[in-house]
Amino acid sequence: MNNFGDILQAMRPLRRRLRQRDSLKAAWMSLGAGLGGSVLLLLAGRIWPLLYNGQFLAIGLIFTLLLFLVGQLFVWLRPLPPQKLARLGDAYLHLDERLITALELGEGRLQAAPAIRQSQLDDALGCLQRASLPEALPLIARNRLLQIGGVLLALIISAAALFLTPNPQEAILQQQDELADLLESEIKQLKEAQANLPAQADPLLAPQVEELSAELSDLIDRLESARSELSPEQAMAALSEAEESLTNLDQQRLAQQQTLNNLAESLAQSNLQSAQDAAQALQNGDIQRASETLQQLGQTPPAAPAEAESLAQTLSKAAQAVAQTNPQLAQS
Q1: Spatial separation of the C-alpha atoms in residues 67 and 155, rounded to whole Å
Q2: Cα(59)–Cα(108) distance, rounded to whole angstroms?
Q3: pTM for the complete prediction?
Q4: Cα(47)–Cα(67) distance, rounded to whole angstroms?
């Protein structure tokens, strides 16, 4: 005697066949959508300089893989309760609602005499066992297979042609990348120069250093703005100004060193020990000590008239020595 459990057991191949068919359908749909999206991306890349062909292809492949995984998870993990499975079996196997009737009888939702109930269960089980699932539920029809294969083949050929043929927009992308690298290099150089300013500066030239630091900050901001906007005109103008600023910075460093050398030579000719000490400090590169010595010398001039006159002559010669390279320092 057959019971309700036998029918549920016999419905398992039907459930598996339905999932296999839906899995195949989800696979070719995800493949078609992914290939179609890749073709559209490659076409867009030929109209606007967005990404390189290889990047578009990688995005398309990732998109296709995600669609495939989501589709397969949905097919194999979605619930397929017995009642829905029975209705699908009746429809595809042409069982005239035998399965859904047997299911309702077995679950007690439909009442009938024991003999009628058993006869209905036996009939449903027999029909289900005799049904040929491959014939009633083919994974894909032959004509459908040809149509899908043709569409997928056309998409593959289109994507391959767009990927392999030269893309004129890639030249623009290459130019933008080179420009971005050049801007990045210039910004790095300017930041390094700005970071080195405090170490290279000395109290005698502090105003010039502060002004130069402000100019470098403004120029760095302009270069970063040009890099974010990728405007060739703005970028080239900013790069030209950056090169000019770096050249001026090198010239100012040379002028600064020449100023200190001239000042050291003038102070070394003085008869005053403090002036000679300042000259020695300048020659040794100890700018801070030289500045402090000169400040003390200016605040406490010698009491003796001869020494005061010698100090005045020394400072006058020092001012003349640095006048050409640093007029502001000479006046101070």
Answers
A1: 16
A2: 54
A3: 0.65
A4: 26
